[in-house]
Amino acid sequence: MSTDITGPTDGDFPSGTPGKRELRGTPARWNETTKWVDRDGLPLPSPMLVVGFTTELHRWKDKKLDKISEHPLPDPADLNSAIPKAEWEKGLDGQPRPPWQLTYVIWLVSLDTGALYKYANSTFGAMLLYNHLDEQVAVMRMIRGEHVLPIVNLEQRPMKTQYGMKTRPHLHIIGWRTPGGGGGPRLTPQSPMPQIGAPTTPTPTPTTPTTPTPTPTTPPPAPSPAATTASILDHTQPVKPVTVGELIADELPPWA
């Protein structure tokens, strides 16, 4: 397990590894009304690069978050059974809610800005999103290697519930990358202008002092989002899509 954003060793992307900085990221949220938004309620960028995912146990108490991220995770039922139900907080339905919840965590990076986002939720819809992503990544890594990362569009899908049809969050994979492309242009320091001979200084006349004329300067243009996206993807390599023959291990011979 690793918190290295450039090359996680597996699907997990845990926090708290000794000697590693915990990756927090800007909270990413989804609900039926707002869809995908950040903590300020602004729409999230799409597409984004998924750089890791894991499961954790979360417990909210007195508006503070306790979490367990070290795997293997303990059984939340065992933890909850040790807490008196009188101390359980009420859920949205008004009923006592088990304190410890299995939570699905996904880290995403904006292709436009490189900003890191963290989606964490324990709902049934979040579980479906996580399991679907986990399965697709597992299949691709079996065929293309351990370090492939999906590029996803942030979408939603219909979901049947006991209250009728609802919608749930969904990450639609549109491509795959692997870290280590490296090939973007690099900035190099400019060498000083060579001087030929000794510099000369003009001598002003006593009656007409010379005044240097200011040279207008033009600030460099700000990088466009497209250029930023290119720089992020330039440091990854595209991954060849999986064929049906590879999935069923039954490629047709070239003479067929």
Indicate the topology:
Blueprint: E1 26-31, E2 35-38, E3 48-61, E4 64-68, H1 76-81, E5 101-110, E6 116-121, H2 124-144, E7 149-161, E8 164-179, H3 225-234, E9 236-238, H4 244-248
Parallel strand pairs: 1-6
Antiparallel strand pairs: 1-2, 3-4, 3-5, 3-7, 5-6, 7-8, 8-9
Quick description:
This protein is an alpha+beta fold and 256 residues long.
Account of the protein in words:
With 256 residues, the chain is an alpha+beta fold. The chain has one domain. The protein has four helices and nine strands; from the N terminus they run ββββαββαββαβα. The protein has helices spanning 76-81, 124-144, 225-234, 244-248, and strands at residues 26-31, 35-38, 48-61, 64-68, 101-110, 116-121, 149-161, 164-179, 236-238. Strands 1, 2, 3, 4, 5, 6, 7, 8 and 9 form a nine-stranded mixed β-sheet that branches. The longest helix is centred in the middle third of the chain and has 21 residues, at 124-144. It is globular, with a radius of gyration of 27 Å. The two termini are 44 Å apart. Mean pLDDT is 78; it is low at 1-19 and 182-200.
Strand segment tally: 9
The separation of the N and C termini measures 44 Å
Major sheet: size, sense and barrel closure?
A: 9 strands, mixed
Order of helices and strands: EEEEHEEHEEHEH
**Considering DSSP H and I runs of 4 or more, what fraction of the residues is helical?**
10-25%
Arithmetic mean of pLDDT: 78
Low-confidence stretches: 1-19, 182-200
Radius of gyration: 27 Å
Structural class: alpha+beta
Number of helices, where a helix is a run of at least 4 consecutive DSSP H or I residues: 4
Determine the strand fraction and express it as a percent band.
Answer: 25-35%
Number of domains: 1
Sum up the overall morphology in one term.
Answer: globular
